[in-house]
Amino acid sequence: MFSRAFSSQVQPVELARKLAKEMDAHRTASVSRVYVPNQYTVWLSAEDRQRLEGYERSLEQELSGYLLEHARRHDYALLTRPEVNLETDERLRLGEFGIQTRLVKPPARQGEDPSLGEQGHTMVYTVPPKQSRKERRRPGGRLIETKAIVTMDDRRYVLDGPVAVLGRSRGCDCVFSDPNVSREHAELRRGSTGDWQVIDLGSTNGIKVNDRRVDRSRLSPGDEVTLGTTRFTFDIEQ
Q1: pLDDT score at 160
Q2: Which phi and psi (to 5°) does residue 191 adopt?
Q3: What are the φ/ψ torsions at residue 167 (nearest 5 degrees)?
Q4: Of 53, 37, 50, 189, nearest to 119 (Cα)?
Q5: 141: Cβ contacts below 8 Å, ≥ 6 apart
Q6: Helix (H) and strand (E) counts for the chain?
Q7: What pLDDT, on the 0 to 100 scale, is given for residue 9?
Q8: Which of 5-9, 83-87, 209-213 has the lowest mean pLDDT?
């Protein structure tokens, strides 16, 4: 997606925006109210977590206050004040972070443990690089910037583009643990109109789109893509 040498660090303002987005995405409507999760776990790379050392607790409280204000502005119902916890995920690289939400019901009586709701998928985000003037504008029209979403197992990758590499290597934008996946197996590439295509990078076992073997193919939301023996669902975020 962009050179590892120019990876951006995770910034608190970006965490706040994505936390609010996850709150919006996990709304649950009852008869008269709209409930949102009240527990948020933010997974950071070891490098980003170390950089926040010293004011981590203050940042968690600040993010909690931001979510509380966001819920008030949108008239969301909360069972308790939003709780934000920062954790480390060794699989994440500098500039990547995951967010996992949960609706936690407070204990009915003192001394009881809180009741935990179903844990949602972990949304994995990558801090976008600074775009060059060439990327922002192209002759003949404005570049339409969409994001690719890759969903596999319990993880969802949100890729800003314009190019994202998929493979087994830790340097890839989407890392696959499947031994049948090449180190740099394929790439997702965004076109000027906001559409995406998948391209084989000379992998050993190739790629399939909706069970059809291809070297490259334009992707539509809902397409099933197979690398090695791992299948993921593709989607586009406008």
Answers
A1: 81
A2: -90, 175
A3: 175, -175
A4: 37
A5: 192
A6: 4, 21
A7: 79
A8: 5-9
Residue of 87, 99, 115, 82 whose CA lies nearest to 18: 99
Query: Looking at the DSSP assignment, which residues form a beta bridge with residue 138?
Result: 141
CA atoms within 13 A on the CB side of 140: 2
Compute φ and ψ for 145, nearest 5 degrees. -100, 105
Whether 64 has a pLDDT exceeding 50, the answer reads: yes
pLDDT at 182: 93
Query: Residue 83's closest CA among 125, 42, 131, 124?
Result: 42
**Residue 133 in tokens:** 């003037």
**172 in Cβ contact with 165 (< 8 Å):** yes
Q: Which among 80, 54, 79, 81 is positioned nearest to 66, based on CA atoms?
A: 81
Find, among 84, 122, 121, 87, the residue nearest to 104 by Cα. Answer: 84
Give dist(CA 9, CA 127) in Å, integer: 7
pTM (global) more than 0.90: no
Q: Is 136 helix (H, G, I), strand (E, B) or coil?
A: helix
14 alpha-carbon distance from chain centroid: 12
Report which of residues 173 and 58 the model is more confident about: 58
SS3 137: strand
The amino acid that residue 8 corresponds to is S
| Type and span of the H or E element at 126 | strand 122-126
Q: What pLDDT is stored for residue 127 in this prediction?
A: 57
pLDDT of 112 above 70: no
Give percent above pLDDT 90 in the chain.
42
| Whether the Cβ atoms of residue 21 and residue 63 lie closer than 8 Å to each other | no
Residue 59 CA neighbour count, 13 Å, CB half? 20
